[in-house]
Write a structure and sequence with these properties.
Uracil-DNA Glycosylase, subunit E; two-stranded antiparallel sheet; 14% strand; globular
């Protein structure tokens, strides 16, 4: 009896690899179940000549609605970090390990849910293809999920922060570190906001 292989993004990769072709092909990806609830695929964004690629975990609520990576609160934090480092955002490429927003409903709000290993693995071919086209000098992993996708295994992010690690994804240096979003600052703010907005029983 033949074993049925699980679908992944690899089933949707275009034969000709360009950022434009990849972005268009990704729109119809259903390599995992996240496409069912997400508004749209959120592909990477930035110049073909970018020497640095920032990899996040997945799109958030605003990114899912706008169809652009790092367009919400996480994007504002990234913009500030880049500004502090005097790096124009227009010179870097930003993307996510997972291209669809995973969430649960809490009332009328959509709250972030961490993607599963299966979902990260299924989406990895898109990231591989992006890196293959871009051939950057450096990958910056923002959070444990991004680092796991790039490195190919679980990474103790608090111990690895600021260290250069090798990746099976590409033969390039990878630098995992944590932005404030991934230490829970924004989520704590969101919980406080919800608490204030919730009516008393």
């Amino acid at each position: 009896m033949a074993i049925k292989l699980q679908k992944s993004a690899a089933d949707f990769l275009p034969p000709r690899r360009t950022l434009k072709a990849l972005r268009e092909a990704a729109r119809s990806c259903n390599g995992c179940d996240l496409y069912k609830n997400a508004t749209q695929t959120v592909f990477g964004e930035g110049p073909r000549t970018a020497s640095v690629v920032f990899v996040g975990e997945q799109p958030g609520d605003q990114e899912d609605r706008q169809g652009r990576p790092f367009a919400g609160p996480a994007g504002r934090l990234l913009d500030k970090a880049l500004a502090d480092a005097q790096i124009p955002r227009g010179q870097v490429y930003v993307t996510n390990a997972v291209k669809h927003f995973k969430f649960i409903w809490r009332g009328k709000r959509r709250l972030h849910q961490k993607p599963s290993i299966r979902q990260v693995t299924a989406c990895r071919p898109w990231l591989e293809a992006e890196i293959e086209v871009l051939r950057p000098k450096l990958l910056v992993c923002m959070g444990a999920t991004a680092a796991q996708s790039v490195i190919g295994k679980a990474v103790p992010i608090t111990q690895s922060r600021g260290k250069f690690l090798r990746s099976d994804l590409v033969r390039l240096p990878s630098l995992p570190f944590i932005l404030p979003l991934y230490t829970g600052i924004l989520r704590k703010r969101s919980r406080k906001k919800n608490a204030v907005a919730s009516p008393k029983r």
